[in-house]
Automatic annotation (TrEMBL):
Domain (Radical SAM core) ranges: 84-312
Protein name: Radical SAM additional 4Fe4S-binding SPASM domain
A GO molecular-function descriptor: oxidoreductase activity
Pfam families: Radical_SAM
Source organism phylogeny: Bacteria, Pseudomonadati, Bacteroidota, Cytophagia, Cytophagales
Database matches in Gene3D superfamilies: Aldolase class I (3.20.20.70)
Length: 442
């Protein structure tokens, strides 16, 4: 017998947490048991079975200790293959435009004025939807996400025809249609909401706030004298009351983070049952990425404030990059730009240099330079990942990162074991939140 390679022990209040990143098992142990485990890591588990047979049996039962012949890396590879090659769903992301009604300082995209889907472009996307559904016999759900640019700029003329067509085809084939919008939320109104309710469609939304009203309006403003915070917050509430799920993305920096403590005050009038439709997720702005003791201190405090007000709040690091792998990692996914260019990743600018294919007039994707197969086989080649205890929840980040680091040993956490411990603690926090147990303050 041997200890699982995916065990981690991290300090947790007066005890220690033992967490397995492969099976997500979690137990809290006294310091003495932690010492026994560390001894077993050095001298083997046989001594542990003799000193504390009850603890040993428990660890075996929950796969913290496994048989010598178990190849955990092979099991992880099988799991990733199964998830990323799932033929029961297709995830399509559409950029109806690369124009936007805001100019956020940190946005990586090149906004293109007057860019939008043509009539022919809409028809090609409709053909692609039909072709994909016809060619995937195991398909159960079709997911369409609208991105951009701001996808609501030309909603009625460019987006509605796609939704209505997909709705019709999915109905005929008895498929579930799932819709999602990544939007700044400023253009949402009652007419927009009624469009979906009349069709019994309930899309989810990701809408960003950049701190409290003062901080947000420095980033997203209509004019020098008019911000957008109040309108966006009102629209988020309107969606929640209508039964739509809204992920409120908090884009924070060292400068604006503490201001987010004010945000729940603007949502406290949302009735209890509708609060379940709101989820606050924290993402640090990528240009503001230097280590910061201030952020490390303030982030748990701000998260606690939002949770204490009765809202779900999580941070970016708690994402499971295997079970909930990025859409770009999945074989059955594509990003269609308004001009027919095809991408897999939405976190890079939509330039000609970054495109990986194109959509034909017949509604077929031509992948250039065998890109799809290269991407699908890019994982499990990075040596630091293959030896890492958090590989089952990280796996070197997404396939885009693996492609960009091909041939180079890398770690998305810079090989910092303390950063890995933080990721472990975030996952532990998620487990406790789900079970309504007391959270750590560490």
């Amino acid at each position: 017998m041997k200890l699982s390679r995916y065990n981690s022990i991290v300090p947790y209040k007066a005890k220690y947490a033992l967490f397995n990143t492969f099976n997500k098992k979690l137990i809290f142990i006294e310091p003495l048991l932690k010492d026994l485990l560390e001894s077993a890591a050095h001298y083997g588990v046989q001594e542990l079975s003799e000193i504390h047979p009850q603890f040993y049996e428990y660890l075996c039962r929950h796969h913290f200790i496994i048989a010598d012949e178990v190849d955990e890396l092979a099991l992880l590879k099988e799991k990733v293959q199964r998830i990323d090659n799932n033929p029961t769903q297709f995830e399509l992301t559409i950029n109806p435009t690369m124009n936007c009604n805001f100019k956020c300082w940190y946005c990586y995209e090149t906004h293109i004025k007057n860019s939008r889907l043509s009539k022919e472009g809409i028809q090609k996307i409709q053909k692609f939807i039909k072709n994909t559904i016809d060619e995937m016999p195991d398909l159960q759900r079709f997911i369409i996400g609208f991105f951009g640019g701001e996808p609501l700029l030309y909603f009625e003329k460019d987006v509605v025809p796609i939704i209505e067509y997909a709705h019709q085809v999915c109905k005929e084939k008895d498929l579930e249609l799932i819709l999602h919008f990544t939007t700044n939320g400023y253009l949402i109104d009652e007419k927009f909401i009624e469009f979906f309710k009349q069709r019994d469609l309930y899309p989810s939304f990701q809408i960003t706030l950049d701190g409290n009203e003062t901080e947000h309006n420095k980033v997203r403003f209509v004019s020098a004298s008019k911000g957008s915070y109040k309108e966006i917050v009102a629209n988020i509430k309107q969606l929640a009351y209508a039964g739509f799920s809204v992920g409120v993305r908090i884009n924070y920096t060292e400068e604006n983070l503490i201001s987010v403590k004010d945000v729940p005050n603007d949502f406290n009038d949302v009735d209890g049952e509708f609060r379940e439709n709101l989820h606050f997720s924290f993402h640090r702005v990528w240009q503001d990425n230097k280590p910061s003791e201030l952020v490390d201190t303030q982030l748990p405090e701000v998260l606690g404030t939002i949770r204490n007000n009765g809202f779900l709040a999580t941070e970016q690091g708690a994402t499971d990059a295997v079970v909930n792998s990025c859409y770009a990692d999945k074989r059955y996914s594509a990003v269609l730009n308004y001009n027919g260019d095809v991408y897999k990743c939405t976190a890079r600018d939509f330039t000609k240099e970054n495109r990986v294919g194109f959509l034909t007039d017949e509604g077929k994707i031509i992948w250039e330079n065998d890109h799809l197969e290269k991407r699908m086989n890019i994982k499990f080649h990075n040596k630091p990942c293959l030896e890492c205890r958090i590989q089952p929840i990280c796996n070197g980040g997404c396939s885009q990162q693996a492609l960009e680091h091909w041939g180079i040993d890398y770690c998305v956490h810079n090989g910092d074991e303390r950063e890995k411990d933080k990721i472990i603690l975030q996952h532990i926090e998620q487990i406790l939140l789900a079970k309504n147990l007391e959270l750590a303050t560490a």
